[in-house]
Specification:
By secondary structure, the chain is an alpha+beta fold. Helix content is 57%, strand content 17%. It has helices at residues 2-17, 19-58, 74-81, 88-95, 149-153, 163-170, 212-219, 237-251, 267-310, 312-320, 325-361, 370-396, 400-405; strands at residues 63-66, 101-115, 120-129, 141-144, 158-161, 179-182, 185-193, 198-199, 202-203, 207-211, 226-231, 263-266. Helix 2 packs antiparallel against helix 9 (267-310), helix 4 packs across helix 8 and helix 9 crosses helix 11 (325-361).
Amino acid sequence: MQQFLEAAGIALSAIWSSKLRSFLTMLGNIVAVTSIIAVVSLIQGMNASVEGAITSQIGADTFAVGRAGPTRTEEEQLRAQSNPRVTLEDAEAIRDASERIQYVMAQANGSGEAKSRRETLESLSIQGVTKEYGLLPTTLLESGRMITATEFATKRSVVILGWDAADRLFGAVDPLEKFVTLAGGRFRVVGIHKKKGAIFGQSQDEFAVIPLGAFQRLFGSRQSLRLTVMPTDSTMVRPAMDDATVALRVERRLRPSEPDNFGVVTSDTFLDLYNQVTSGIFAILIGVVGLSLVVGGIVIMNIMLMVVSERTREIGLRKSLGARRRDVLWQILTESITLSTCGGMVGTALGFLVAFAISRFTPLPAAVEPWSVVLGISVTAVVGLFFGLYPAMRAASLDPIEALRRE
């Protein structure tokens, strides 16, 4: 350890004595690590945002049943369009299918004009839900109350507004017990949903939730529903999905040879699809950026070869005074690693600054992971070791007598 600290001290003195050359040597690593850290931080931020958005829509411990699952080909998409609508009868069949299923919520989605005395929104997402909406773990109110079972049963014109929708429609005025017009119908505001945030600059809080009966009064009853199914226990998600699949196949009188004409998905289904689509793109992007590390390493190797040439007499003197081959090798390697690592540390700091600057002024999110700091610094240390090995071996192999003769 002491030998390493002494060698690092010598290396830092050599770097400090040639500031401009050292900076230009580190510049390749600084640019490369800055790019890598910025890209990794943005990718981590995007992944976290997408995961949060998907989980908030479906829930980590629930699964959804719809007219179709995720479609990957045009053929699958065309087949999904011919699937029958998901109805309340399907929800009832799933609810009665198994003791593993706690409840089933039905939801219909639409959009329409929203008006208050203060503001008009041309297109607001309107969700019609059943009474199980308040039981979902993703349903969190900031103020007001939930829609009651009686209001669901009587198709009462009451609404829960998303945070941004309430803010835009009512501003500083308390929206509770005020009235808002949705798609031509007059609704009383009874609750404000807790803020969800935004993904890629797109707000997740511009929506209105109303009883499904009131929704069908506005938009008609022929729209396909999406069912959110909550198992009795988080460990029962997969068995409950199997039970729901069997229940729907029986309800729709499908033969064993016929494929499902509905989709059963979890949040993991969409996350896996997202990862499949983006993993290759992210790998190529990081690979292209990583090529600049190779360029930075080649620059370090060239500079270290020049350093060995300039310090030939010094190396010869050290060897003539008893320095061993490995002492010279370690000295040059330590200087190369220190030079490269310093560039990595500066690049890591700049990478985070670039990532958060992009996040601040664009919709792209950024996230700092501890492993990315270790990655930025350790990769440059490896680069310094690899590209400093050849100059170090050349220095260690110098003959002391021939080295002392050189001018």
